[in-house]
């Protein structure tokens, strides 16, 4: 049996090393917009007429310029992106004989390394050590000495913008960075508002005196027009499915309320079929708890806290998708030890894998023998898949359709990638193979964990067979599975030479780190098998009173605290630029996650056997019951919802610890909600765009 398990893991590792991940088709730029709408609107002759009209109509022309290109705010502190005014641009329309004229919002990338053009709109004074403020800011008559000192200090920093843009020649003069400079690939991401009949080149030449013909190098990323989201098959399927579910919910809830509230009959006498979609009954079940002696109460709190940690980490990462005003501050924050509570969040996924392994063995071992497992193996798999399918399918369908139509913004192109992926590769998500097939184009990127969990459940009967045979066979099988997974993962990690932190990994290695290590079942399996060991241990002693002497108990809890603290702290040195320890990277990638599982597993075991003290009291509070039951739904749905919210941003955000924590949108205390809303809205960096959607807090 052990040899067979070893072969399975080594074959998986060999396939990853040799063949990589399977991509079924070449992948062009993803799009869920009406491309024909953009193409049909282009007309060079009409464009010249529209541009001439804008020159004669000062107010209308000013609207295009006001909604479009400008130097990014925060340019002096590293911000290289400006989003313009998306909604203003798309609302522009001409009058009278030019009623056809409409605003078109476009995003362009302008490399900072320009060999054939002079950057007249960047003052020459910016390249000098002393800044003549009257030239740079003519309306400013006084600048504080403190601010001037800070700016000069900023210019002298190694990571300052001055180093990004200029370097000294042999004669001591400052010049533009050449294309072969390490910083030569930096670019400005700018928005431009133009007539829909024009290309970006035609509009730029009109607005800025033939700037493209003078040598401006730029790339058009995308353009947007009103009503450019056509309805496709996914939209009609979503309308039918969600409409049917909504109708069943209304009917079921009406029956339930009529039976239980109006007629005041016993809820137990109502038809289970008729109340299956009832909000009234399902909410009552959500908050109804019944405990048995074999229930491990602390798992509810642990699962809820782990889920909160995941949401916190994703809230920080998704808030960065549109860029930040102060990227240098963000970079410095990531490198500080106090950022550990966010940068170490990925380890919590291994907590879920540990819990999955524990519950798998703990529940199966008490219900069936090995012959029963073999006879009902199809039901074993079917039960797992059906439990995951409804919410996962809901998230896929909502992302492919509903979410695409409920919001919009200058960054919506980023969300369109997810829409396109869900419309094209939905099947790989529902089949739980998205971490191996078309891994670069996942519909829901965070569901790689669900795929790993399902794949581990598929191979788990190889171990469960021996677990259900005898105690000796169980320990042999569990130990063999864990040791084999550790050996295979170590060899695989050594062969690839992954960095131990995604933040510290170089750009060229980042894709390999995520695709071949982070979402790879082979590398994530050890915590699952650690969980299976703890699950069998808990099952074996569930009716036994365990006595642990006080010195040993203090020692084990001290070791637990040391291991947890070390694992969390390791994220700090690993993400530093000077971290160069290839051998240690292999060791960390192979053993840090199972060691974390070992520590969390001990905590669960201690709490279950009465040695958890205040930790067990806290994790076993009834308040954790409902969040624990909703944790899977929260995991699947929170990530696309965060993208929906953040892709409607109208300006790059200002990075700080506070605003990056997602607001709940409501407060349980009516007294506090008003000042909290003021706190949130008074941190806004730009006026908001009024509409029904964005003004409803999520």
Automatic annotation (TrEMBL):
Residues 44-225 form the Nose resistant-to-fluoxetine protein N-terminal domain. It holds the Pfam family NRF. Residues 1-20 form the signal peptide. The keyword Membrane applies. InterPro entries: Acyl_transf_3_dom, Nose-resist-to-fluoxetine_N, O2_lipid_transport_reg. Keywords: Membrane, Signal, Transmembrane, Transmembrane helix. It comes from the Eukaryota. The keyword Transmembrane applies. The chain crosses the membrane at residues 236-255, 304-325, 345-365, 385-407, 447-468, 475-496, 516-539, 551-571, 591-611, 632-651, 671-690. PANTHER family: O-ACYLTRANSFERASE (PTHR11161), O-ACYLTRANSFERASE LIKE PROTEIN (PTHR11161:SF0). This is Nose resistant-to-fluoxetine protein N-terminal domain-containing protein. It comes from Plutella xylostella (Diamondback moth).
């Amino acid at each position: 049996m052990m040899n067979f398990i070893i072969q399975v893991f080594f074959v998986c590792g060999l396939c990853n090393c040799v063949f990589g991940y399977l991509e079924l088709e070449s992948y062009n730029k993803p799009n869920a917009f009406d491309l024909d709408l953009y193409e049909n609107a282009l007309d060079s002759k009409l464009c010249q007429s529209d541009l001439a009209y804008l020159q004669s109509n000062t107010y209308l022309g000013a609207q295009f310029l006001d909604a479009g290109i400008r130097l990014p705010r925060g340019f002096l502190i590293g911000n290289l992106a400006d989003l313009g005014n998306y909604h203003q641009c798309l609302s522009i329309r001409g009058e009278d004989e030019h009623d056809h004229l409409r605003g078109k919002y476009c995003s362009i990338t302008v490399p900072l390394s320009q060999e054939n053009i002079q950057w007249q709109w960047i003052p020459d004074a910016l390249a000098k050590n002393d800044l003549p403020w009257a030239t740079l800011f003519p309306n400013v008559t006084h600048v504080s000495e403190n601010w001037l000192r800070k700016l000069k200090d900023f210019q002298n920093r190694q990571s300052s913008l001055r180093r990004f843009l200029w370097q000294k020649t042999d004669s001591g003069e400052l010049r533009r960075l050449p294309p072969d400079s390490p910083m030569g690939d930096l670019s400005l991401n700018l928005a431009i508002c133009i007539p829909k009949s024009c290309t970006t080149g035609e509009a730029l030449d009109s607005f800025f005196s033939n700037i493209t013909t003078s040598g401006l190098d730029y790339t058009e990323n995308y353009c947007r027009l009103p009503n450019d989201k056509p309805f496709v098959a996914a939209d009609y399927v979503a309308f039918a499915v969600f409409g049917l579910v909504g109708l069943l919910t209304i009917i079921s809830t009406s029956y339930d309320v009529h039976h239980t509230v109006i007629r005041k009959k016993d809820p137990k006498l109502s038809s289970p079929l008729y109340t299956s979609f009832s909000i009234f009954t399902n909410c009552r079940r959500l908050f109804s708890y019944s405990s048995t002696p074999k229930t491990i109460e602390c798992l509810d709190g642990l699962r809820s806290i782990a889920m909160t940690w995941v949401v916190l980490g994703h809230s920080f990462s998704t808030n960065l998708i549109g860029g930040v005003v102060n990227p240098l501050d963000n970079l410095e924050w990531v490198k500080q030890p106090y950022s550990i509570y966010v940068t170490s969040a990925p380890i919590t996924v291994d907590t879920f894998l540990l819990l999955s392994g524990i519950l798998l063995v703990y529940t199966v071992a008490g219900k069936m023998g090995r012959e029963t497992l073999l006879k009902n193996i199809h039901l074993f798999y079917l039960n797992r898949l059906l439990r995951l399918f409804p919410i996962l399918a809901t998230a896929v369908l909502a992302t492919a359709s509903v979410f695409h139509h409920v919001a919009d913004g200058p960054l919506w192109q980023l969300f369109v990638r997810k829409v396109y992926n869900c419309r094209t590769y939905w099947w790989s998500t529902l089949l739980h193979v998205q971490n191996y097939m078309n891994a670069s184009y996942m519909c829901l990127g965070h569901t790689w964990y669900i795929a790993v969990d399902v794949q581990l459940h598929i191979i788990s009967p190889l171990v469960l067979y021996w677990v259900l045979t005898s105690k000796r066979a169980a320990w042999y099988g569990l130990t063999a599975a864990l040791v084999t997974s550790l050996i295979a993962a170590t060899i695989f990690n050594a062969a690839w030479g992954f960095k131990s932190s995604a933040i510290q990994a170089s750009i060229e290695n980042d894709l390999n780190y995520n695709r071949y290590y982070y979402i790879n079942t082979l590398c994530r399996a050890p915590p699952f098998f650690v969980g299976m060991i703890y699950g069998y241990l808990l099952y074996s002693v569930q009716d036994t009173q365990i006595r642990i002497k006080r010195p040993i108990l203090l020692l084990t809890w001290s070791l637990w605290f040391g291991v947890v603290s070390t694992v969390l702290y390791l994220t700090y040195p690993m993400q530093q630029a000077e971290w160069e320890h290839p051998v240690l990277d292999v060791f960390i990638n192979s053993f840090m996650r199972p060691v974390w599982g070992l520590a969390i597993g001990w905590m669960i075991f201690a709490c279950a056997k009465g040695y958890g003290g205040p930790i067990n009291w806290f994790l076993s509070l009834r308040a954790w019951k409902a969040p624990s039951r909703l944790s899977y739904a929260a995991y699947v749905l929170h990530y696309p919802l965060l993208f929906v919210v953040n892709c409607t941003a109208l300006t790059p955000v200002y990075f700080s610890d506070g605003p990056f924590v997602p607001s709940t949108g409501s407060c349980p205390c009516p007294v506090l909600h008003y000042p909290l809303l003021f706190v949130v809205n008074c941190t806004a960096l730009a006026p908001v765009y009024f509409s029904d959607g964005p003004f409803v807090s999520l």
